[in-house]
C-alpha cells in the first residue's frame, strides 16, 4: 500500500459522502459531502489569491467544524498547516504567525478580539472561521476571490459537485505537512516540522489498534492544535467515516459529562486530569460510604460491588465505548489502581509532538498497570541505561512517526536528534523484559538531593495530590530543601466548614503523613499554600519553571 495520508482523507470523503461528519455540539452538522464542498471553496480562495503548494497557512481558534475544514483544505491543497493553540497569549500568536511566515491566518472570533494585525506584517489576509469571511485583506486577489466565491464555484461545477470531482494533492512521505509549535513552557516554543509519513503512520497505527467504523461517534475534547487531539480525535476518525462532535466551549467536566450522555461516543480519548476530575466529582461521591468501604474488603460481595462501580463509571462516560485511551501526562497512581480494581477498560499511551504524537501503546486487555505500553508499530524505543529494567535512563526512539526537525532552528534539532537518527525525548524511564515502558519523570524536572540522589518530583506530587483537600501541587527545591507548593481544594474545604487556618493545619498534617512514606532525601521541609490554580500548558501540565523561585 502506498504511504499516502491524503489518500485516507480523499477515500473517506468519497466513500462516506452521505454520512454525518463534523458537528458543533449543540449546533450544525456537516456531512462528508458538505466538508468536500467547503474544501473546494477554500481551494478556490487559495488559487485565486496566489497561494502555492508549500506556503504556510495558520489556524487559531477553539475546536469547531470549520477548524477541521480549514485543516483538511490546507493539506489537500498541498499547503503547510500551522495550528496555533487558542490558549496562547496574543504576542505568542503573533510570534508564531511571523516565525512560520504564514500567508493567511484563519481565526476564531474570541481569538480575533485580542490580536493586532499590525503585529503580523507578513500576512496577506485574515479570515474569520465562523463563516470564512474576510477580516483583513492586503491583496486585491483575495478580496475579489471571496466576493465572487459562489459564482466561481458555480462556473467550475456547472451541473453539480460530485464525488468524482475530488482529486487532491498527492503527498510524498518526506514532504512537510504540519508545523506544530510546542507548548511554550520554556521561552518561545519551537516549531515541530511533521512530514506526511508521520501523519500517515499515526493514522495507520490508529487503524491497527482501534476499532471504529463508519457512522461511529466521537467527542473531541482535546485542543486540535495539539497533536494528540488532532491525531486521535479527528484525523483517524475522519479517515474512518465517523461523526465527530466538537465541544466548542470550554470543556468543563459538567459539559463533557453532558456530551457523553447525549452523544454516547464509541471511543474516549482523554488526558488524566479530565478522567480524574470526572471520577472525583461524579463517581466517588456515590461510593463514599462506610458500608461501601467495608464491602470493598469482603471478597465475595466485592465482585458484585465492583460490577456496580464499573457500571456507574461506564455510564458516566456514555456507556457505549470500547475503551478509554489516556495520554498527555502521567496518571495518578491511586486513580489508576481504582480503575484497575474495577476492571475498567482503559489504557495509557505515551507520545510527544515530535512524533506526531505516538511512541508507545498497548491494548487495554494486555496493558501493564503503571506503564505506558510498548513501542508502537513501526517505532523503535530504547532506554539509555546499563540496566533498563532497574536503572532509570532517558527514553529515545526512532521511526516514521518522527519529525523532520524544528523549523528554522538547527541548533535545537541537533540537541534532540543524534547522529544515528535517534530522538532523545528528555523523559526518563524503565523498560521491562516484555518491552513495557514506565515513565519516571522528565529529565529536566529531576532534582538532585544534597547527597546526590535523584529526586523525581512527579512521584512525590502523585502521593501528595491524593491527600485531604489537595487539588494540585508542585515540589520545588530551595536551599537543598524540598518545599511543597499546594493549591488546596477550597470548595471542598469550605463546604466541610474549614477556615483558612484549618486548611493550613491540614496541610501540615499532610506533610507529616507524606514524609512518613518517603525516603529521607525526599522529605518535605514545609508546605506553602497557593490561592489559585497553577498556570498550565495546553496539555494541562503545570508550568513548573514559573514556580521554581517561589519563596516559602
Tell me the strand percentage band.
Answer: 15-25%
Low-confidence stretches: none
Q: What is the CATH architecture assignment of the largest domain? A: 3-Layer(aba) Sandwich
CATH T-level topology of the largest domain = Rossmann fold
Class by alpha and beta content: alpha/beta
| Helix proportion | 25-40%
Estimate the mean pLDDT confidence.
Answer: 90
By CATH, the superfamily of the largest domain comes out as ANL, N-terminal domain
Please give the radius of gyration in angstroms: 25 Å
Q: Kindly report how far apart the N and C termini lie.
A: 60 Å
Number of separate helices: 18
Strand order of the largest sheet: 4-3-5-6-7
Question: What's the topology here?
Answer:
Layout: H1 5-15, E1 20-24, E2 29-31, H2 32-48, E3 56-60, H3 65-77, E4 80-84, H4 90-99, E5 104-107, H5 109-112, E6 125-128, E7 133-137, H6 140-147, H7 149-156, E8 176-181, E9 191-195, H8 196-209, E10 217-220, H9 227-240, E11 243-246, H10 253-263, E12 268-270, H11 272-287, H12 290-295, H13 299-316, E13 324-326, H14 333-341, E14 346-348, E15 350-351, E16 358-361, E17 374-375, E18 380-384, E19 393-398, E20 405-406, H15 410-416, E21 423-431, E22 437-442, E23 447-448, E24 454-455, H16 457-464, E25 470-478, E26 481-488, H17 490-495, H18 500-516, E27 524-529
Helix pairs in contact: 1-9, 2-3, 2-6, 2-7, 8-9, 11-13
What attributes characterize this protein structure?
552 residues, alpha/beta, Rossmann fold, GMP Synthetase, Chain A, domain 3, 18 helices, 27 strands, 36% helix, 22% strand, globular
